[in-house]
Write a structure and sequence with these properties.
heterodimer; A: Immunoglobulin-like; about 25% helix; B: two-stranded antiparallel ribbon; two-stranded parallel ribbon
C-alpha cells in the first residue's frame, strides 16, 4: 500500500515549514547582521583586570570581570549613541552576562573569552544581570550601564583600587560584601567602620578592630541581623589585617 | 499473556518509588513560584535552601521520574508485544542500580552537599557521591535494552517477514537514543568530574564538560518524549475508539529521532564562548530538521482522532472534534494524552524560537526557557507519565480507578501550565533570569535591585504554579484511593493488557523497518557534527578550572 495522499501533503508541508524557517534565520543572520557570539581563540584577548578603553568618539571596549557574586566594573556611564564592544571573563565559576532589553546575552565560561556588541541609541539605566546559577549569592550578581544625554565621555565605578581593596578581592571578601553600598550576601562595608551593627540575637556591637578580628577568626559568631550565617573562615596575617582595617576605615566617607 | 509476576513487582516499584519522590519535586515546584514572585523572600523554607530544592526538583522530576517510567513502560510493552519472557535478573539489576543511584544522589542533595542544579555545571563542585549516584542510575537504565535485544533478535528469527510491533519500535528507539546520548555525559562524569571532586585532578576543561553535557542534554528531551510518542502511536488510537491513521508515520518518526536526536546539542550553547558560529549554525539547522517528524506526528495523530471521532458519529469539517471521549469515566486515560498534545503545540512552537539561532540572544537563560520546557516535559511527557503510571499500576493490581476524578487532572494541569508559562514567557522577554532566587532581590520591594516591571509576569507564574500543584494533589488522591481500594475480583483471572491499536493505512516502506541503518547514520552524523567543535575546544580550552562550593567564593583546596 502506498502512502496516503494527505500524509504526503503533510510531509511536504513540514519540509516547507523548515525551509521557510531556515530562510528567515539566514535573512536575520546575513541580511540584518544579527549573529551569535563566536569563538575567540585564547591568547588573543587575555585579561584579568576589568577596564574600559576608548576606541573612537562613540566606541568603547569594555573588559568585564565576573566573579562570585559581582561584575567589575559595577557601574559604567556612557553617552547616548555609544557602541560598546564587550569582552568578559570569569575568575571562578561559570556566569552569565545579560544586558536586559538588548541582544547581549553571553555565557562567561572559565578558560574562554565571551564577546558581544551593543549600541545604545536611547538614554536609560540598563541592568546587567548574571543569568547562570553561580552559587548562593547568584541573585545578587548584577551591574548597570547608565546611558545619558548629558555626558560627553565615559566614567566608571567599581574598579579595583588600593592595596587593601586588592587584598580583600584576592581573599574573596568582596564577593559577598560590597564597598559602594550595593546589597550583597553579606552587609556592605561602605560606612561600616565605627558604626553600630545589629546582631541576629537582638544585641548590637560597635564595628571596631576587635569586632573585625573576631568576625574574621570566628565567622560563625556574632551573626549580623537579616543575613544568613554563611561566612567562611578566611586566614589573615597581622599585616593583612592591618591593611584591610586601614582600607575599611577609609570607606566611611 | 500475563506479565511475569516478578516483573510485575519490579514495574510497580519503578512506578511507585519515583512518584513518591515526586511529591517533594512537586512541592518544591510550587514553592519556587513563590520565591520567584517575592511572596517568599528568604534563602530557605523549612530547612531546604532555594537552590537545593531547585536541584532536587530537576533531578527528581526530569531525571528520576522520567527514566523510571521509560523503563517500566518498556518492560510492559516489550514483553506484551513480543509475547516473550524477559530477563528477571536483568530487571532486578537495573532496578537495584537505579534505585541505589537515585537514593545516593538524593541523599547528597538533601544533605546540602550537591546544590549544583541538575545540569551540575563545573566549576561548581558537588560531593563525589552525588556524581557516583548519577552514574549508577544511568548505568542501571542501560541494562534493560541490553537484555531485550537478544529477545528481539530471537523474535525476528521466529517471525520472518513480520513487521516489528509499533510499540517495540518506539521503546527500542527510546533506549537507543538514551544509549547514544548518555555515553558522552558518562564520560564527563567519570573521567572529568569524579576524579576532580575527589581531588585527584586540580582542574577541569569547563567548555569540554559543557559540550559533553549538552551532547546528552538535548537528546534527553527526546528520551523523555519518546515513551509518550509510543503511547500516542499505540494507545491513543485504541482508547479513542479507532485505528492509527498511518503505520509508516510512526516508524518514520521513531527512526527519524534515532537519526537526529544527538547531533544538535550545541543549540543549548549558542551563547557559549569557545565555539565558532559555523559549528553553532550547522547544529542549528539539524535541530530544525526535527520539526519534520514532529509535524508528521501532529498530522497523524489529528488524522487518527478524526477517524476515531467519525466512527463515533462525528460529522462536518470541524464538528467531529465534539465527539471524542474528553471526559468519560471509562476512557480517563484519553484526556491525559489529549491535553498533552494541546500543550505540546505551544511547547513545540516556542521550542522552534529557542532553536532559531540568533533569536536565542533574546531568550537564552531567561525564564522563557523554563516556560517552554514546562510545556514539553511538563506537558505531554508529564501527563503521559501520570496517566500511563496510573493505568499500569491499577491494571497490574486490578484496582478500580475513580475515572471522572482521574480525567479532571489533565485539564486542571493544562490550565495551570498555560498560566504558569504565560507568566514566564512574558518575564523572559523582559530579561527575567531563570534559576534565580528572585524574591531576595529582583522581586523584593525593599531591595535596590527591585524590578516592579516584572511583577505581573512573576505573579502569573505563581498562580499557574499553584494550579499545577492542585492538579498534582487531585492525582495523588486518585492514586491513593486506587491503591487502598479492594482489587476487583472480576478481573482476577483477566491478564492486564496495555491497549494497542491496529493501523488504518499499513504502508509497506522497507526503509523504516530496520534499526541498523538509522543507528549507523545517527552515529556518523554525531561524529560529523561534533568533530570540529570538540577539536576546537580541546585545542583552545584550558583544563585548569578549580572547583568551587556554591556557598564559598574561594576555590576548593586540593592537595
Amino acid at each position: 500500500m502506498s502512502i496516503n495522499v494527505f500524509e504526503k501533503r503533510a510531509m511536504m508541508g513540514a519540509v516547507g515549514a523548515v525551509v521557510v524557517s531556515l530562510g528567515l534565520i539566514a535573512y536575520a543572520t546575513w541580511g540584518l547582521g544579527i549573529n551569535l557570539p563566536t569563538c575567540i581563540p585564547l591568547g588573543s584577548k587575555p585579561f584579568e583586570q576589568a577596564s574600559v578603553t576608548k576606541q573612537d568618539a562613540k566606541t568603547y571596549e569594555v573588559h568585564y570581570v565576573a566573579r562570585m557574586w559581582a561584575f567589575e566594573p559595577s557601574v559604567l556611564h556612557v553617552p547616548t549613541g555609544s557602541t560598546l564592544n564587550i569582552y568578559a571573563v570569569t575568575k571562578d565559576v561559570t556566569h552569565g552576562l545579560e544586558i536586559a532589553g538588548t541582544n547581549v546575552n553571553l555565557m562567561v565560561v572559565p578558560g574562554a573569552v565571551a564577546n558581544g556588541t551593543v549600541h545604545f541609541s536611547k538614554p536609560g539605566i540598563y541592568t546587567i544581570l548574571c543569568h547562570e546559577y553561580c552559587g548562593r549569592g547568584h541573585q545578587n550578581m548584577n551591574a548597570r550601564i547608565e546611558v545619558s544625554d548629558s555626558i560627553t565621555d565615559y566614567s566608571v565605578e567599581g574598579l579595583p583600587g588600593s592595596e587593601g581593596q586588592k587584598l580583600m578581592d584576592a581573599k574573596g571578601c568582596l564577593a559577598c560584601h560590597s564597598v559602594d553600598g550595593t546589597p550583597g550576601v553579606g552587609p556592605t562595608f561602605k560606612g561600616v567602620w565605627g558604626s553600630t551593627v545589629p546582631l541576629a540575637d537582638g544585641t548590637t556591637r560597635n564595628f571596631d578592630a576587635a569586632f573585625f578580628v573576631q568576625k574574621v577568626q570566628h565567622p560563625d559568631t556574632m551573626n549580623v541581623k537579616d543575613f544568613a550565617p554563611v561566612m567562611p573562615t578566611i586566614p589573615l596575617t597581622d599585616d593583612e589585617t592591618a591593611q584591610i582595617e586601614a582600607y575599611l576605615e577609609g570607606l566611611q566617607k | 499473556m500475563e506479565l511475569q509476576k516478578n516483573l510485575q513487582r519490579i514495574i510497580l516499584a519503578e512506578l511507585l518509588v519515583p512518584l513518591a519522590l515526586f511529591i517533594f519535586g512537586a512541592y518544591h515546584g510550587v514553592l519556587q513560584t513563590m520565591y520567584l514572585s517575592g511572596v517568599v523572600r528568604a534563602n530557605s523554607v523549612a530547612g531546604i535552601d532555594y537552590y537545593q530544592g531547585l536541584t532536587a526538583h530537576g533531578v527528581i522530576n526530569a531525571l528520576v521520574l522520567t527514566t523510571f517510567f521509560a523503563v517500566a513502560l518498556g518492560y510492559v510493552i516489550v514483553s506484551q508485544a513480543l509475547k516473550s519472557k524477559l530477563s528477571e535478573a536483568g530487571a532486578t539489576i537495573s532496578l537495584v542500580l537505579m534505585l541505589g543511584g537515585a537514593v545516593l544522589a538524593a541523599a547528597m542533595i538533601f544533605a546540602g552537599k550537591a546544590s549544583v542544579l541538575y545540569t551540575f555545571y563545573p566549576p561548581l563542585m558537588a560531593h563525589p557521591l552525588f556524581y557516583v549516584g548519577l552514574v549508577l542510575f544511568v548505568v542501571g537504565s542501560w541494562v534493560p535494552l541490553w537484555t531485550w535485544i537478544p529477545v528481539y533478535v530471537r523474535w525476528r528469527k521466529e517471525h520472518p517477514g513480520q513487521k516489528t510491533p509499533m510499540g517495540v519500535v518506539g521503546i527500542f528507539s527510546t533506549f537507543i537514543v538514551w544509549q547514544m546520548a548518555t555515553l558522552p555525559v558518562a564520560a564527563e562524569v567519570i573521567l572529568q568530574l569524579i576524579p576532580w571532586s575527589l581531588g585527584w585532578t586540580t582542574g577541569v576543561n569547563v567548555m569540554l564538560s559543557r559540550t559533553l553535557f549538552w551532547f546528552f542534554g538535548h537528546p534527553l528531551v527526546y528520551f523523555w518524549l519518546l515513551p509518550t510518542y509510543v503511547m500516542y502511536y499505540t494507545v491513543l488510537p485504541k482508547i479513542s475508539g479507532g485505528k492509527l491513521f498511518s503505520d509508516f508515520a510512526g516508524r518514520f518518526t521513531f527512526m527519524g529521532l534515532i537519526l537526529l536526536s544527538c547531533p544538535l546539542g550545541l543549540h543549548h550553547q549558542f551563547a557559549d564562548p569557545g565555539i565558532s558560529t559555523t559549528n553553532k549554525g550547522i547544529q542549528g539547522v539539524l535541530t530544525l530538521l526535527v520539526v519534520i517528524p514532529s509535524l508528521m506526528t501532529a498530522f497523524t495523530i489529528a488524522a487518527t482522532l478524526e477517524y476515531s471521532s467519525r466512527k463515533r458519529g462525528g460529522k462536518g469539517l470541524f464538528g467531529w472534534w465534539s465527539k471524542l471521549p474528553y471526559f468519560e469515566a471509562d476512557s480517563w486515560l484519553f484526556p491525559y494524552l489529549f491535553c498533552g498534545l494541546v500543550i505540546f503545540i505551544a511547547g513545540g512552537i516556542t521550542g522552534i524560537v529557542n532553536a532559531s539561532y540568533a533569536l536565542n540572544n533574546v531568550i537564552h537563560n531567561t525564564s522563557w526557557v523554563p516556560a517552554h520546557f514546562h510545556l514539553t516535559v511538563g506537558g505531554p511527557i508529564f501527563l503521559g507519565i501520570l496517566g500511563g503510571s496510573l493505568y499500569i499500576i491499577s491494571g497490574l493490581l486490578k484496582k478500580p480507578v475513580a475515572g471522572k476524578m482521574a480525567a479532571l487532572v489533565p485539564y486542571v494541569w493544562m490550565i495551570g501550565t498555560f498560566t504558569f508559562s504565560t507568566g514566564l514567557f512574558m518575564g523572559g522577554l523582559k530579561g527575567v533570569p531563570r534559576r534565580t532566587n528572585l524574591g531576595l532581590t529582583y522581586m523584593n520591594p525593599t531591595s535596590p535591585m527591585y524590578r516592579p516591571d516584572w511583577f505581573l509576569a512573576a505573579h502569573l507564574g505563581m498562580i499557574g504554579g499553584s494550579i499545577m500543584g492542585l492538579a498534582v494533589l487531585i492525582f495523588f488522591i486518585v492514586l491513593i484511593r486506587s491503591l487502598l481500594a479492594k482489587a476487583d475480583p472480576a478481573l482476577a483471572n483477566v491478564p492486564f493488557v496495555f491497549p494497542t491499536s491496529e493501523p488504518l493505512h499499513d504502508e509497506d516502506v522497507p526503509a523504516v523497518r530496520n534499526f541498523a541503518p538509522w543507528v549507523l547514520a545517527g552515529c556518523l552524523l554525531c561524529a560529523a557534527a561534533y568533530y570540529l567543535p570538540l577539536h576546537d575546544i580541546i585545542k583552545n580550552g584550558s583544563s585548569a578550572a578549580p572547583g568551587f562550593r556554591p556557598d564559598n567564593p574561594t576555590a576548593v583546596k586540593t592537595n
